[in-house]
Design goal:
This protein has 142 residues and is of the alpha+beta class. It has helices spanning 3-16, 22-29, 33-45, 78-86, 112-123; strands at residues 65-73, 91-96, 103-109, 129-136. The protein has a four-stranded antiparallel sheet. Helix 1 (3-16) packs across helix 2 (22-29) and helix 2 packs across helix 3. The longest helix is centred in the N-terminal third of the chain and has 14 residues, at 3-16. It is elongated. This is Lrp/AsnC family transcriptional regulator. Residues 3-72 form the HTH asnC-type domain.
Length: 142
Amino acid sequence: MSVESTERRILSVLEEDAQASYAEIADRAEVSKPTVRKYIKKLEDEGVIVGYSADIDPKKLSGQSIAMVGIDVASERYVEATRQLSDIDAVESLYTSSGDHMLMAEVRATDGNSLAAVIEDEILELDGVTAAHPSFLQERLK
């Protein structure tokens, strides 16, 4: 088996279940536990695996609203704006995008009104941010 296919299989298991044990990953990826340990360490060191997280169903999360927010930024303010966006506590994750917006942010707040306040009072107030387009997440389907 090739190194790439071994990495792919291990990553595939982790993407399905970030809490899987080395033994579970080894069984599902059809490799040994030491192989899993070696590849996970390598992938972490290379920055391929940047963390482990839980997938949240926003509808079942009491006291919290989640939105994916498309953000447009003036090109001359891009670097500074992305740093400032990363510093906002309610911004759970921030991605560059090749779609309709330059950036996509996962924003979390206690409810819809608080989420709107974060967008209006924190995100849109940043120098260089020209627009923010929220899509409120309602139900996780997969």
